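User: Hey, quick favor. My workstation is busy. Could you predict this chain's structure for me?
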Amino acid sequence: MAVSDRTEAATRMGQMIEIAGAKGTMPVYVARPAVAASAADGPRPGVLVIADAFGMTADVRAQADWLASEGYLAAAPDLYYWGGRMRCLVSTFRQAAARKGPAFDDLEATRAWLAAQPSSTGKVGVIGFCMGGGFALLLAAMGEYRAASVNYGRVPGDALSLLEDACPVVASYGGRDRSLPNAAQALQAALAANEIPFDVKVYPDAGHAFMNQHDAADVPRVMTLLSPIMGQGHRPEETADARRRITAFFGAHLQPKA
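Assistant: No problem, here it is.
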């Protein structure tokens, strides 16, 4: 085990479990709120955490841990469990474009698992990053979620009709991300036209994936070469603000009313 792996194992809040997936047994990283706080506050809402194109990494586990620290039962499925990363990545992007396929079945299996847990209120939100942000936006329109957090996710051309009956959406984009021109504006316009509660913000000095912190070993070389185009790089201040907005938004739409 590498030093970074030992450090993560010592600090992470969750554990890997297995649930039935569309193509076999699927690993899922589950992070739970602190036992004492959970017992005092009663059942907690769930959040489905969808990784970026790199799949199950230390970063997505850290995102789930953060949500658990905010009082949510968080679950991040490994959508690449059935094959090699590149093969799974290509297939998963194709399914996102088609808006159907085993990846959607695996995400629904994770959502259903969250909703069925004895420690869950049954209410589930979804959060995604990059590829996962695109999935989160599609799932927001499918009727099973109470809130969605879309972080630098692709906005389809038919967003106006797609989001007609969407759940509330909080979204964050980087102003220096040239891979998603005008995505935030298009998303905000579609949500406003459909009178969907939203909080969409562009961070002018941030690029793509500004909320993610990946180990170098998890980043394919081709993505390193694309970094100048995407303005990529972790931005701590913008991440802190985005997380504050997300937890406030989830608190308003997922937490039990007083």
